[in-house]
Design brief:
six-stranded mixed β-sheet; three-stranded antiparallel β-sheet; 21 helices; globular; binds flavin-adenine dinucleotide; FAD; Acyl-CoA_oxidase_C; peroxisome
């Protein structure tokens, strides 16, 4: 499709949001915005091209009948949900020409949301983990075959790591891969009940291959967990002899995905099926270790960054729903109308409602935007690692991706629930989309690294830095430079209108630094009387707190920096207030850390609180337009409460009428 970004086209797209027949409340909100929506959308999506592509992909999906839903997915049972998602998934991958498949951060996730919705499906793991595993872990000379087979769907794979008895503790996985030099095969085996693989997506019914993590034994010695390419099902899709496989049953969400279990009984695979890019087993059983222990982390970093971006967009969508609904919903309970005689107010006018909505909206912006630049860093690092060239950036990026993953998935899940509650009873209906959003998002707190375990990894990085700083010989990467700055005794924060970005950053850095060193000192004191691991465990709550603050400081700094790049003054003003609201809300929530030792005075804390109330009032007139700046179509949103036109009540009735209970 030809692109046209002339001013008239831009205006047309802006006007499209306001149409005849819309709920008058939502139209009034849009007309009252203090900024030009198109300019703001360009800022949010970084350029007009991305906006244009969103529109083109939407039009493509809407014009293809195979993406239609004859029955609303909410009214399907699990079998039907799996059938629907599989049908759509195949249609989606048959039409991949519609998107730039290398744009994992924007086009690919948008396309999936539009075609299938918020569901992991039978190919999620194939594309999300199996293909990247082949790319990262297969020797260059051998990659073409498996990659082409996987890319063309001649084989469908999953990633099988977690077992019934072990998830986070990789070193204790029990599945074994024992090399038999006489036949030049590995024998994959499940020696105990707890060694059964449990959870891999797409395993229950769909995948015929898996990348299996198993303890390698060769020449009678254990070499730790390694990855193996294992065929599970034959050409007729029946499990091969020695393989027992099935679905693990319904879960809190993602029920269109057949997460499965897998048990091996002395199942043999050829030697070449070990992923041998980094470590190797020679034909005679000789083991060759990887040149660097952290090789292979690049794929994990990229997958986490993708996940963070996806999750943040979920929070953005939830905020869009709750804000639009709050603009059309009216209420006045007991205390009566705010202005006598003017009727019930839009619930968006209640300060308590603004307090529920706007900090969540603010939260949805910084992480989604930073992910794009982190994507390029991650690609750079992966390239360096793959060329065995430069490992220096890896600990920083690994710690950052682990920390962002833990903080953001938690905030997204909590935020969605808060936004659901803000919509009263209708938020509880699946028509709102909140229940499905929450179920989808909260899974992210566990998979790809359980959140607490992730925070403790960040803490390990921070403790290493603290030790280096104390020893006077720090080698600090960009993200950790502030840890070596001199201590600050008092906070600089003041009224939201007068305090500068530098003041805010100064205070966040100072508080985080203090927290890191206080934890480091406690840890080293405990280590004098305890074993290292015991001391670590005793300190672990503080370690997690320090890790969280480190990530939040990073997010605040980046949000403020990103706002400075906004070229449109009106958009920049609103975004700047939103960024300050984000920072002030974090200070208010973490008041204990900020007030410790009198760093933040009571007067300053009161200014922070008052600032939040004033910023809520300042942002209120722009809230619907800010929600619109996410440029999310109704098809992508899939929510009766968040529809563009605001006509919620007739749509709710229409939705309910599709219930099978109403068919006879
Ligand atoms: C929706 C979903 C999809 C999934 N998909 C896949 C998949 O495709 N493939 C796959 O292999 N797996 C998959 N998993 C499994 C997932 O990766 C694991 O559940 C996850 O790694 C956590 O492991 P666990 O369940 O064994 O929990 P555990 O590790 O047993 O954790 C349980 C609790 O113990 C705590 N804990 C554990 N270790 C420590 C520690 N060292 N210090 C402090 N606290 C600790 C944790 O914080 C947590 O509170 C999926 C899980 C879900 C929910």
């Amino acid at each position: 499709m030809e692109r046209d970004s002339s001013p008239s086209d831009q205006f047309h797209r802006y006007k499209n949001l306001i149409q005849n027949g819309d709920n008058p409340d939502i139209t009034k909100e849009r007309q009252g915005a203090s900024f030009n929506l198109y300019n703001m959308q360009c800022f949010v999506y970084e350029n007009d091209h991305k906006l244009q592509r969103r529109q083109e992909i939407l039009e493509f999906v809407e014009s293809h009948r195979e993406f239609d839903d004859p029955v609303h997915p909410h009214f399907l049972n699990r079998d039907e949900q799996i059938d629907r998602a599989t049908r759509k998934c195949l249609a989606m991958v048959d039409n991949l020409d519609a998107i730039d498949v290398t744009d994992y951060f924007d086009e690919a996730p948008l396309y999936q949301l539009l075609t299938i919705g918020r569901e992991l499906h039978c190919l999620s793991l194939h594309y999300g983990m199996f293909l990247p595993t082949i790319q990262v872990h297969t020797e260059k000379s051998l990659i073409l075959g498996p990659f082409q087979m996987a890319a063309s769907k001649a084989i469908l794979g999953t990633f099988a790591q977690t077992e019934l008895g072990h998830g986070s503790n990789l070193s204790k996985l029990e599945t074994t891969a024992t090399y038999d030099a006489t036949t030049k095969e590995f024998v994959i085996h499940t020696p105990t009940m707890s060694a059964g693989k449990w959870w891999p997506g797409g395993l229950g019914k769909s995948a015929n291959y898996a990348a299996v993590m198993a303890q390698l034994y060769t020449s009678g010695e254990s070499k730790g967990p390694h990855l193996f390419m294992v065929q599970l099902r034959d050409n007729a899709h029946a499990p091969l002899p020695g393989v027992t496989v099935g679905d693990i049953g319904p879960k809190l969400g993602n029920n269109a995905n057949d997460n499965g279990f897998l048990i091996f009984d002395h199942y043999r695979i050829p030697r070449r099926n070990m992923f041998m890019k980094y470590s190797k087993v020679e034909a005679d059983g000789t083991y060759i270790p990887p040149p660097h222990a952290k090789l292979g982390f690049g794929a994990m970093v990229l997958v986490r960054l993708l996940m963070i971006r996806d999750q943040t967009c979920q929070l953005g969508a939830a905020a869009v729903i709750a804000i639009r609904y709050s603009a059309v919903r009216h209420s006045a309970v007991r205390q009566g109308e705010i202005n006598e005689g003017e009727g019930e107010v839009q619930i968006l006018d209640y300060r308590t409602q603004q307090y529920r909505l706007l900090p969540q909206l603010a939260r949805s912006f910084p992480s989604s935007q930073r992910m794009r630049s982190r994507n390029s860093t991650s690609k750079y690092v992966t390239k360096q690692i793959n060329n065995n060239a430069n490992m220096e950036l890896l600990p920083e990026l690994h710690a950052l991706s682990s920390g962002l993953k833990a903080v953001i998935t938690w905030e997204v899940a909590q935020g969605i629930e808060q936004l659901r509650l803000s919509c009263g009873g209708h938020g509880y209906s699946r028509a709102s989309a909140f229940p499905d959003m929450y179920a989808y998002a909260v899974g992210g707190c566990t998979y790809e690294g359980e959140n607490i375990v992730m925070l403790l990894q960040v803490a390990r990085f921070l403790m290493m830095i603290a030790k280096e700083v104390r020893s006077g010989n720090p080698k600090l990467a960009e993200i950790a430079e502030y840890i070596a700055k001199p201590d600050a005794v008092t906070a600089r924060i003041s009224s939201w209108k007068t305090c500068s970005d530098e003041d805010i950053i100064h205070d966040f850095e100072a508080v985080t630094r203090k927290l890191i060193f206080a934890t480091f000192d406690r840890l080293t004191t405990l280590e004098r009387t305890m074993k290292k691991k015991e001391a670590w465990n005793a300190c672990s709550i503080d370690l997690c707190k320090a890790a969280r603050m480190h990530v939040k400081t990073y997010l605040v700094k980046n949000f403020l920096a990103r706002v400075r790049t906004c070229e449109d003054p009106a958009s920049r003003t609103v975004m700047h207030t939103l960024a300050k609201l984000y920072a002030f809300d974090l200070i208010s929530g973490g008041g204990g850390h900020f007030m410790k030792g009198g760093f933040l005075s009571e007067k300053q804390f009161n200014e922070v609180q008052l600032g939040i109330y004033e910023m809520l009032a300042a942002i209120r007139p722009d809230s619907v337009a800010l929600a619109d700046s996410w440029a999310i179509s109704d098809l992508e949103l899939r929510s009766v409460l968040g529809r563009r036109d605001g006509n919620v009540y007739p749509a709710l009735l229409e939705w309910a009428q599709q219930s099978p209970l109403n068919q006879n």
